[in-house]
Protein 1
Amino acid sequence: ACDLTLDPNTAHTRLSLSAGNKQAKCDRDNQPYPDHPERFEYCEQVLCEESLTGRCYWEVEWSGWGHVAVAYKGISRK
């Protein structure tokens, strides 16, 4: 599996990052993240710091509802 780290500069303010930026949790309250041009503002999303190339996989655990997706770094944030 790929060891991925979530990028706090891209995290939507309703996402709380923990465990060394390896986990994200959706909260009702906004997090006090500083403004950043790469931050997602519309949907509760976060990008990884690492770029992926070739074949790779990752393992995900969640409870309740959730989505996992793959996107280019240039995805719209605003």
Protein 2
Amino acid sequence: MGEARLARELAVARRTNGFVTAHALEKLDNVVNAYRLQEGVRAELGAKVVGWKLAAPPSAEVISAPLFDIECMASGTVLANAALLRDGVECELALRIDRPLPFGGCTRDDVITAVGAVMPAFELLCSRLPAKFASPREHIVADGMGQGAVVLGAPCGDWRTLDLDKLRVRLWSGDALVVDKQGGNPFGDPLLAVALLANHLARRGQVLAPGTFALAGSHTGVHRAKPGERLHCVFEGIGHVALNLRDAMPTISEEQDHVGR
């Protein structure tokens, strides 16, 4: 399948919360093309890049994906579509970039200077791949690393006295405490994660620009939410983020379940 057609198929799957077929992906065998497909999907969706996420697979180069304006929600949103988090929800810090970062050679100190605010966030996971997160790395990259949506809490500007790597984070489902832990960021320090992301993007000729934000990794692992849950996450010293799931949620139609057949 040609690159332009695959970008359309991935965009349709993203728009409808469907899936692409293994056949559609069979010729995608390198990460360079996968990153080019990310831009093709963005263009097909008519979306604007408002942020970035990153991951560091074991024994592999950091991978990243853009976050789109059309997939950002405010804290307290009532989510009608369960498919957006069919692969779970994670509690993360979103670091807002207010000042330019160096193009390459970015350090933790550079990030401290550039970050204007930190926001508590939920990342909703919704892979469109047949094998989901067990897929080849280039397929995961092309699919935007399973990005479903981001729910953002209020920005905290007074964050520099806090140790972001040691924050206490708690996640509730209704009145039930699901997670209560200290730290837990997969990169150790969210500020270092942002520096890592900025340098990764620079190697690809891109920038983590002022006005965008970076999701710096899950502090809680993946929570499998159920219909009717009221999710509430608190990062001590930063703030809270909330998401409400409807009791009865629509399922994906059979026609939408796969594209590219």
Protein 3
Amino acid sequence: MRDGIVHLPASRWCRYGHYLLGTTTGADDEPEIRNAQASTGGLIVKSSIFTPDFVDRSYWLTSLPQMGSSAEPLPARIDALIVGAGLTGLTAGHDLSRSGRRVVILDSGEPGEGASSRNAGMLGRNTKHSFLGLSKSAGQDVAIRYFRDLHRVFLSSIERIEAEKISCNYQQNGRVVVAHTQQQFNGLRAEYEARAEYLGEKISILDEGVQSEVGSKSFVGGVYVHDNGAVHPGQYTRAFIARAKAAGASIIGKTVVQSIRREKDGFLVKTSNGMVRARDVLLCSNGYTASLIPWIARRLIQIESYIVATEPLPADVVQSVFPRNRTYIDSTRRPMSMRLSSDGMRIVFGARTGEPKNQPIRETARLIYDDLTTTFPQLRGYRLANAWGGRCGVTWDHFPHVGQHEGMHYALGFNFSGLAMAPYLGEILARQVLGAAPDTDFQTRSFPSVLMPARAFDAAVTRRVIRYYGWRDHASMRPAS
């Protein structure tokens, strides 16, 4: 990277180009989409993997009462307009409103129904960077400072939940990170032993003991991270809506921001619901932002993430899969996330990150079901009740970023780890608007881009990035020589 811009050497394109562009020959990388089959009187009958009341909506939202919103009239002039009613925007709106600013938070859909209410609800020190990798590339002091920042983010989430008595089914049940191969496990062990030594993280190494944590023969070992937790992300997001409203912020859904024009004393914002003038504009829509601001489009890759939830399962089946009711994730670059629903009756399973967003959700769900039942054969025959997706924002350097562009404030690039990070950066963003100087590297770090037109960031680019992740995962799955 030079001058904040990613330059890809020609040799690297030559080496990986055919793979990334999808021009390799041979069998399809993806497994076939298979239906469960039952034999009846010599006939093969295809049985559905979906319940009769299956819905393509987040389980976390269908388990809550419908909220509903309407496109209310916009005021003519306000102090702060926030684009995106997710955890970032709601937190920034809450803090600015409490400081006396007149705030409107807009969302193109239903407020609070974006990525934060659609994720797996895992709370921890999440990052796409490894401590050892960052120590090698940037130096150990930088790595320690960054991971301590992540710990501060994590602690701020827990402190907020406890201090404000946020009702979100919070459980500090720990997380198990699992490895498919000995090569992966060796790397995982080295990483977490370094975190324990330099950062004080409390961990336990699981080799044969991994079977007592997760009921699958797919994993050779893992690491148990003691203090990680879980929430019901639908309840969590609803609580942030309530606290922003209580502070005085107006939250308006079903309103698409179409353009933002800078003026002498602020901004003129055109929406599907009319025009509004604002002294400050805050961009808080993460993976949904790129089409609005070309400058951001060159810095943010939009990637779809997917999750399924099973129908309610018998208690003995649940016990056979997750005997200790923790959260679980594997150590690949396209990870599988696994946990129980908050009521302990369903498996919530995420996989197939980067599948095309225009692919029918049932088709994606079939692929995930294949991964689910391959990992946990005891779940074959049980059906899916929900399948859904959400758009994530991934940066080229895999760091989150807070800053300003042409006078607009932004907090973007959570890299699949927004549950704790988004509210924290919302607080940082509000302080930035109020003229404070936040003490965080997230604000001072340069924001790398690529030298290509914004329109190039389409599904094809996403597929190539995901293929690259797949290539790296495939390499780590090879048996050690």
Protein 4
Amino acid sequence: IGDRQTGKTAVAIDAIINQKVFENDPSRRMHCIYVAIGQKQSTVAQVVEKLKQAGAMAYTTIVVSGASDPAPMQFLAPYTGVTIGEYFRDYGVNGEKGSATNPAQHALCIYDDLSKQAVAYRQLSLLLRRPPGREAYPGDVFYVHSRLLERAAKMSDKEGAGSLTALPIIETQGGDVSAYIPTNVIS
């Protein structure tokens, strides 16, 4: 959580790059999913280039819904990313359901950033004439984000012991972490 240009994306990209040390260890291997929501194409291109230079694209999937994409696509992009993450958590690389004898894989899903998804959801809700709430966001925006983030989980050994970790990024305005969206994601 932080203002523009404070290094939130850089920390997330470093987290992806640092997973390379586990690439050859099947029990600790991590598949990373980077979900760019409402980002400029040039910004996403820089991220992809950094990941390529670090050799991280072999274990990374990138989902992009750019700034010029319609609001419904920006709203749905995080769900696409988490679904990919759930696949790796539940099935691993070989595509077979995880079990005690067939371990699944770990996954990391980075949402960059959920405040832009909230803006897209606000646009959709206002177009659908749903009553606006605080800061003109619909009343169920908290439910939307909690439902998304609660899909991150660690499976039992019986289910393959895979895991999905969510790393949401939220942009604040003027360092105000008490604004509606940052407060919702924090809680």
